[in-house]
TrEMBL record:
PROSITE patterns: NA_NEUROTRAN_SYMP_3. The keyword Amino-acid biosynthesis does not apply. This is Transporter. Its main location: membrane. Keywords: Membrane, Transmembrane, Transmembrane helix, Transport. InterPro entries: Na/ntran_symport, SNS_sf, YocR/YhdH-like. It is found in: Membrane. It is a multi-pass membrane protein. GO terms for cellular component: membrane.
Length: 430
């Protein structure tokens, strides 16, 4: 029987654009400033950067190498390496479906805010009331559907024509918008108050274990290394494609966006005398208050939410792709049918989250806190079972830089231990 050849990336640049596209998302622009705001600004930024160098880059090499070596998504990769691997693969597929479901709700709010900025409506409303009326409502359900439909459209077109091309267009635009907004924010009156908060660490807070734990799970989520998306993206790599330098580029790009988002949010928030600790409402309530007071605010508001739409869609595409690929390879369904059917399934799973906040919280906690880090751990174990020597060889194929041999013991011992430690201490630290 002739099996259809697996799709691949068209170019190295296309792959890096898609990888950065997956990584950069609401995690960077909505969650990162929110957490940095809650955990002491620079006191959060510093642990985050330390962990990124220690764990983040390695995590990307682990998942891509595993994907390329096994030529499959998580089900394939774990089946080939671990006992009960098939079920572990199904588990991470379900996890990413749950992530896609709640993530789409938030991205739906973003689309609504973008429209309200364009129409000027956002100048007239009271942001907290607007947000509270929108967040969990029938209307939110509609926007959730729109997000899923857009994602289906891109995924249905395939790896090169859909995902790669969409990212090659969206990513450069995203960077331009980001710079424009950061320049606007840091040149506001009293912006330096925000810069101080963001750049001068309160040393007593850096010592807090909780801060490190939050920084770690934030980093895994932000880099999309939960044993699913990056394994699939790695499986589309060709032998001649580079892994290590791409990992550095992706980690750098993702972090640059998160850090820059902080430069957009904090100077603006402090300049208008607002609080950086608003949590989830920072982007949906506090920032709109800033835009209302700023000259030309609606233009910047529209740009900001457009930026979030690009960032978010390039991430949702990488989520849906995981189980669409599983359905194509395991159930032999066509890409179009798989995209539509699984997209609709996600809508059904996500719909209650648009109406019931408790369900929304449950989805987030299960998928990102309880199961997400396990996905990263399973991927690490799968690679170890494959053999770190063989994995190291795979990693070096097409590599544009030489990876130190230290990579092997790091992946075999330190990396999984770090994951287990974070995982356990999440619960101990509450
Ligand atoms: N990394 C994305 C973000 O920061 O918004 C979210 C994400 C995408 C998480 C894909 C996990 C994933 F598999
Ligand atoms: Na991210």
């Amino acid at each position: 029987m002739k099996v259809l050849a697996r799709e691949t990336w068209g170019s190295r640049v296309g792959f890096v654009a898609a990888a950065i596209g997956s990584a950069v998302g609401l995690g960077n622009i909505w969650m990162f400033p929110m957490r940095a705001g809650l955990y002491g600004g620079a006191a959060f930024l510093i642990p985050y950067l330390v962990l990124l160098f220690a764990v983040g880059v390695v995590a990307l090499t682990v998942e891509w190498t595993l994907g390329r070596a096994t030529k499959g998504g998580p089900i394939e990769a774990f089946e080939k390496t671990l006992p009960g691997g098939k079920y572990l693969g199904i588990l991470v597929n379900v996890t990413i479906l749950m992530i896609f479901a709640f993530y789409s709700l938030v991205l739906g709010w973003v689309i609504r805010y973008f429209i309200a900025s364009l129409s000027g409506e956002l100048t007239r409303i009271e942001p907290d009331k607007f947000f509270n009326a929108l967040a969990f409502s029938r209307e939110a359900l509609l926007w959730l559907f729109v997000v899923i439909a857009l994602t289906i459209a891109i995924v249905a077109m395939g790896v090169q024509r859909g995902i790669e091309r969409a990212n090659k267009i969206m990513m450069p635009l995203l960077f331009v918008l980001l710079i424009v907004l950061a320049v606007r924010s840091v040149t506001l009156p009293n912006a330096y108050e925000g810069l101080k908060f963001y750049l001068l660490p309160d040393l007593s807070k850096i010592a807090s274990g909780k801060t490190w734990m939050i920084a770690l799970s934030q980093m895994f989520f932000s880099l999309s290394v939960l044993g699913n998306t990056m394994v699939v993206y790695g499986s589309y790599l060709r032998e001649e494609d580079d892994i290590p330098l791409s990992a550095i580029a992706t980690a750098f790009g993702d972090t640059a966006v998160a850090v820059t988002a902080g430069f957009i949010v904090f100077p603006a928030v402090f300049s208008f005398g607002l609080e950086p600790t608003a949590g989830p409402g920072l982007v949906f309530v506090t920032l709109p208050m800033v835009f209302q007071k700023m000259p030309g605010g609606m233009i910047f508001s529209a740009l900001f939410f457009l930026l979030l739409i690009f960032a978010g869609l390039s991430s949702t595409v990488s989520m849906l792709e995981v189980y669409v690929d599983s359905a194509i390879t395991k159930l032999k369904i066509s890409r179009k049918n798989a995209s539509v059917l699984l997209g609709l399934l996600t809508f059904l799973v996500g719909a209650p989250s648009a109406l019931y906040p408790a369900y929304f919280d449950w989805l987030i906690n299960i998928s990102t806190v309880y199961v997400g880090p396990l996905g990263a751990l399973i991927a690490a174990l799968a690679l170890i079972k494959l053999g770190v020597d063989r994995a190291y060889e795979e990693l070096q194929k097409g590599a544009l830089i030489k990876v130190p041999e230290l990579w092997k013991p790091w992946v075999k011992f330190l990396y999984p231990i770090v994951i287990v430690v974070i995982y356990i201490s999440q619960f101990l630290l509450g």
